[in-house]
Automatic annotation (TrEMBL):
Family that this chain belongs to: Belongs to the RNase HII family.
EC number: 3.1.26.4
Organism in which the protein naturally occurs: Hyunsoonleella aestuarii
Lineage: Bacteria, Pseudomonadati, Bacteroidota, Flavobacteriia, Flavobacteriales
UniProt keyword annotations, A-Z: Cytoplasm, Endonuclease, Hydrolase, Manganese, Metal-binding, Nuclease
Family matches, as InterPro entries: RNase_HII (IPR022898), RNase_HII/HIII (IPR001352), RNase_HII/HIII_dom (IPR024567), RNaseH-like_sf (IPR012337), RNaseH_sf (IPR036397)
Record: residues binding a divalent metal cation: D16, E17, D108
Protein location: Cytoplasm
Cofactors that this protein relies on: Mg(2+); Mn(2+)
Function per UniProt: Endonuclease that specifically degrades the RNA of RNA-DNA hybrids.
Reaction equation(s) it catalyzes: Endonucleolytic cleavage to 5'-phosphomonoester
Pfam families xref list: RNase_HII
Name of the protein: Ribonuclease HII
Length: 199
């Protein structure tokens, strides 16, 4: 059973990202403040949910949340500042979209940088422990998946509609055959034999 709060503060925000391990596309983060009476039996870490359930939950979270924000950091910036900094930047941007400044932030994972002067706690596997982080994981994942479906239309040979930019065998085979696109992260090891890859 997921807990509603980590702190006893009213405006506690949970934040999480999606797409950190992908070879293409943005890293996307969301931040969510849930009301004190929020309850939902379906809500869990987005990785534990089917795509259908994630898209059922998305409008429920957006409607019932006290506030939410969603932000992409795109591949050009990932290549400049690295994926860890890009993930934290996406989280900061999503928190910046909230209607209210949070009093406390809970973060999925073990790395974060202070946002303004707001106290925070990093929580490993936080998306399977706290509802606001789980809600953020659902918003981040569904928003990023929708974006990947859109750019799939431009480059269907990589099958991003299916793999969402993750390093599947099919995605890597397509990179070998067709090279890379403007959506690929050039700082990532796109292929195991990357030393020989021509950009």
């Amino acid at each position: 059973m997921l807990s509603l709060k980590y702190s006893n503060l009213h405006l506690e925000c949970g934040t999480d990202e999606a797409g950190r391990g992908c070879l293409a596309g943005p890293v996307t983060a969301a931040a969510v403040i849930l009301p004190g009476n929020f309850a939902n039996d379906l809500l869990n870490d987005s990785k534990q949910l089917s795509e259908k359930k994630r898209f059922v939950l998305k409008p429920i979270i957006e409607e019932q949340a006290f506030g939410f924000g969603i932000a992409h950091v795109f591949q050009e910036d990932i290549d400049k500042i690295n994926i860890l900094n890009a993930s934290i930047l996406a989280m900061h941007k999503s928190i910046g979209q909230l209607k209210f400044d949070p009093e406390f932030i809970i973060v999925d994972g073990n790395k974060f940088k202070p946002y303004k002067n707001v106290p925070f706690e990093t929580i490993v596997k936080g998306d399977s422990k706290y509802l606001s982080i789980a809600a953020a994981s659902v918003l981040a994942k569904t928003t990023r998946d929708t974006y990947m479906d859109k750019i799939h239309e431009e480059f269907p040979m990589y099958n991003w509609k299916q793999n969402k930019g993750y390093p599947t065998k099919e995605h890597r085979d397509a990179i070998r055959k067709y090279g890379i696109t403007k959506y690929h992260r050039k700082s990532f090891k796109l292929l195991p034999e990357q030393l020989t890859l021509e950009f």
